[in-house]
Specification:
- This protein is mainly beta.
- The chain contains 1 helix and 24 strands.
- The protein has a 7-stranded antiparallel β-sheet with strand order 1-4-5-9-8-7-6, with no helix packed on it. It has a 4-stranded antiparallel β-sheet with strand order 3-2-10-11, with no helix packed on it. A 4-stranded antiparallel β-sheet has the order 16-15-23-24, with no helix packed on it.
- Strand 17 and strand 18 form a beta hairpin.
- The longest helix is centred in the middle third of the chain and has 4 residues.
- It starts with 6 loop residues before the first strand and ends in a 9-residue tail after the last strand.
Length: about 260
């Protein structure tokens, strides 16, 4: 790579690459990397690759200490791989999107290239101004989501929908059967979102304390968000969430 990339952003999505029947990459620490203004590519940490599948080769001129590499599984291999050892890309690997059999965000297959998570960069670097747009992605996930309040687990599921909305933390929509209904009570509160529709809320009572409007759900969401219909999401800012047993830091937003 002879030129510097335009932008690098982290993503919380689980990213997997399938090659010859094997997930050769599996990570929650991938990067969206814009090599040009139009859309990003996935770069994954070198340690996220399945051991024994990557072999590095000759160096490539450029600012990132790039090395050509080969990815091999069984009798199938591809040389459309580059490893980076310097600068902002140090420790990352780019596997050409079309070089493997399939890419997945969480449990959903994606096509052609990763979706731009939030920014349209077309001409942005010519006029030195970024134009930001709102985007909502909803991805099915089999990762174990556990929701707790004051040390009490109120929900747990391996069948969640991850809703990624520009400028907000990822929201985890769990099926209703994942919740302990002895702790929930319907609230009269409603709210509206232009991207999702009208929401209803639940209070949670734990150890004699009522946590008001701490959960919400959409009975009839907009068509673009129909996959969260009937599912319940907690405020990440107000509850304790673990993913596959790893506690998540509470985000700081206007909601808490």
């Amino acid at each position: 790579m002879s030129d510097k990339v335009l932008k690098i952003e982290t993503t919380t999505r689980r990213v997997r690459a399938l090659f010859n029947g094997v997930y050769v990459a599996d990570t929650t620490e991938a990067r969206h990397v814009w090599e040009h203004p139009y859309y990003p590519q996935f770069y994954v940490p070198k340690e996220a690759l399945k051991p024994g599948t990557l072999k590095t080769g000759k160096a490539v001129d450029g600012p990132y200490g790039a090395l050509r590499a080969t990815l091999s599984v069984g009798t199938k291999s591809t040389d459309r791989v580059v490893c980076f050892e310097k600068g902002d890309l140090a420790g990352l690997v780019k596997i050409d999107f079309a070089a493997v059999d399939a890419w997945f965000e969480e449990d959903q297959e994606i096509y052609v290239h990763p979706k731009d998570p939030m920014v349209n960069f077309t001409y942005a670097f010519i006029i030195r101004r970024q134009r930001r747009y709102k985007r909502v992605d909803i991805l099915p996930s089999s990762r174990l989501i556990t929701v707790a309040i004051d040390g009490v687990t109120i929900a747990e599921s391996r069948a969640s929908m991850f809703l990624l909305e520009t400028t907000l933390p990822t929201r985890y929509y769990l099926p209703k059967i994942a919740f302990n209904w002895d702790l929930l009570a319907s609230s009269r509160t409603t709210s509206r979102c232009p991207y999702k529709g009208e929401a209803n809320y639940y209070d949670v009572r734990i150890n004699g304390k009522i946590y008001q409007d701490i959960l919400w759900w959409y009975r009839y969401p907009t068509s673009e968000s129909i996959s969260i219909a009937g599912r319940i999401a907690p405020y990440n800012e107000k509850v304790d969430i673990s993913i596959d047993g790893v506690p998540q830091k509470r985000p700081k937003t206007k909601f808490g």
